[in-house]
Design brief:
Layout lengths: L31 H8 L3 H10 L7 E5 L5 H9 L4 E6 L2 H7 L5 E4 L13 E5 L7 H14 L2 E7 L22 H8 L2 E6 L2 E7 L2
Parallel strand pairs: 1-2, 1-4, 2-3, 4-5
Antiparallel strand pairs: 5-7, 6-7
Helix pairs in contact: 2-3
Length: 203
């Protein structure tokens, strides 16, 4: 169903991408990657699939929830000429991500997006903090400013025993991958258990 949530006993600790773009949760940038790899066993595979889904070499990219900068680091390895701007709601994560030498702004996904146009908007493990209406609103705003969107997320799965990434139902809202694809105007290009990558091309 629309806005379907998945619940387990041990939440992700309000996981948001590399950090948080929706609420001011406090992660330690020094231990973040170790923690998320423990909580989301498919984290590296999801990151690799997200970069592989980029449809063309982007001159400009917007990373929603840049956190420590892991996604942007991988993007720069694949596309070293890309000019990346990151957003995150955590001052600690913003400070860490700036070590990549890219522009990083303190902001939430609910805030107006930086003026585009953007060749690529990428969001890895960040959008599940928004409810269904907020997700659709974000996708609408992205579509107005971007040539392409790559979304890598925890998704709702059936049967529940296939869930691997823990979700806090009070703050995190996992949708069906098919719903995310429909709302964003994209398609599912990779999935493994409760993780999926959706790509939308708007040009």
């Amino acid at each position: 169903a629309e806005g379907e949530r998945i619940e387990v006993d041990q939440p992700l600790g309000h996981l948001a991408s590399e950090g948080s773009v929706s609420a001011p949760f406090h992660w330690d940038p020094d231990t973040y990657l170790e923690t998320i790899r423990d909580q989301v066993p498919g984290f590296d595979a999801l990151q690799e699939a997200a970069v592989a889904a980029v449809p063309f070499p982007p001159a400009t990219a917007l990373d929603l929830g840049i956190g420590t900068g892991e996604t942007s680091r991988r993007l720069l390895e694949a596309y070293p000429q890309a000019r990346i701007t990151g957003l995150d709601a955590s001052p600690e994560m913003v400070f860490r991500a700036r070590r990549l030498g890219i522009e990083v702004r303190l902001a939430r996904m609910e805030d107006p997006l930086p003026d585009g146009p953007w060749d690529l908007v990428v969001a890895v493990l960040s959008v599940h903090h928004l409810d269904a209406a907020q997700k659709r609103n974000l996708f609408r705003r992205v579509r107005e400013q971007a040539r392409a969107l790559v979304l890598a997320e925890v998704v709702a799965v059936v049967p529940p025993r296939e869930r691997k990434a823990p979700i806090d139902a009070a703050h995190e809202f996992a949708e069906k991958a098919a719903d995310l694809a429909a709302w964003s105007g994209g398609e599912i290009v990779w999935s493994e258990g409760d993780l999926a990558v959706i790509r939308a091309i708007y040009e």
